[in-house]
Design a protein that fits this description.
This protein is mainly alpha-helical. Helix content is 30%, strand content 1%.
Length: 321
């Protein structure tokens, strides 16, 4: 899922021939051309953003970071792969065995699933018992010590103790070989960037952003990375009513962060099926209609912005709360 779909026939040589496939030429002895064995049979359904693959890896900060793009043992680019389609060898095509070159006219649909870099050290899990390489099994981390340090750093951030936050986050960065951060450099953006570096393909990013959005709205702590914005818990999903499907900053942190860092959502990026769009109420998913309709002895409110929310009832307040 996290490796480009290089084997779907969309990779073309500069002269327009199909360039990459799962099978090698029968007489091929160059093992570097076995893309399936060396990189994995990618299908590209979990496409990272530019933020994950480039923006968080900064010269001068993460040059020696073992997790990052400057470490060629950790990350792979499409240009690392080679044209291996057997027909290229059969016909004597000069591009056979050479490194891939990104087509100038590659469509949005193709580039989304076919052309991006990825952390090979996390996604490559070989299975030596397979004759058809389809990926092996590996433990799925729920929690590990690095995330404990990152949560500790965030806890200190909410307490405005940036010195202790820096100490906690630097435990993770020191192990990875990244430069140390000072208290002056700590903000919610830096904490989220470090989570992205460390927990790629592990954390549920949407859930983490929602959690942080609720914390901002409940504490009304000014958000320094967005000019000191203060968020309102009562309006976290937007105003509801006819204006529920709004796309504007300042309503909740989740929307602001996604729009700021994604190079897909609300940027006019289209493919043949749809356009990438989000609204502020997408911070929460809809309550399944079946759960609402079958609850005949009570009322389950729908989340703001979704059909049925117009029937919501004002919740009863607990005295003293």
């Amino acid at each position: 899922n996290g490796v480009p779909f290089w084997n779907n026939g969309g990779i073309k040589t500069p002269d327009g021939k199909t360039g990459a496939g799962l099978s090698l030429a029968a007489d091929e002895t160059d093992l570097s051309l076995d893309l399936n064995k060396n990189y994995g049979r990618g299908i590209g359904r979990l496409r990272p953003t530019w933020y994950f693959t480039n923006q968080i890896w900064r010269p001068g900060k993460e040059d020696n970071d073992l997790r990052g793009i400057f470490n060629r043992d950790s990350w792979r680019k499409m240009e690392d792969l080679k044209y291996n389609e057997p027909n290229l060898k059969k016909t004597g095509n000069p591009w056979y065995g050479k490194n891939l070159v990104k087509p100038v006219g590659m469509s949005v649909e193709d580039s989304i699933r076919l052309w991006f870099s990825w952390p090979h050290y996390k996604l490559f899990v070989p299975d030596p018992l397979q004759t058809q390489w389809e990926g092996g099994e590996t433990p799925w981390y729920i929690y590990r010590s690095a995330e404990v340090y990152l949560l500790l750093a965030e806890s200190y951030y909410w307490k405005n103790d940036l010195g202790q936050a820096a100490i906690a986050i630097n435990e993770v960065r020191q192990r990875a070989g990244a430069s140390q951060l000072t208290a002056d450099e700590i903000n919610i953006g830096e904490l989220l960037d470090e989570r992205a570096r460390e927990l790629y393909y592990e954390e549920n990013r949407h859930i983490e952003l929602v959690r942080i959005a609720y914390t901002y709205a409940k504490t009304r702590k000014p958000c320094e990375i967005f000019g000191g914005r203060v968020y309102d818990l009562k309006q976290i999903s937007g105003p509801g009513g006819t204006n529920a499907n709004i796309k504007q900053t300042g309503v909740n942190f989740w929307y602001d962060r996604v729009v700021a860092k994604s190079n897909f959502y609300n940027k006019g990026v289209k493919h043949k099926w749809a356009e990438y769009k989000i609204s502020v109420h997408h911070i929460l998913w809809p309550v399944p209609a079946n759960a609402i309709n079958t609850n005949i002895k009570g009322v389950i409110n729908q989340n703001i912005g979704y059909p049925g929310a117009e029937k919501n009832k004002t919740p009863l307040l607990v005295e003293g709360k």
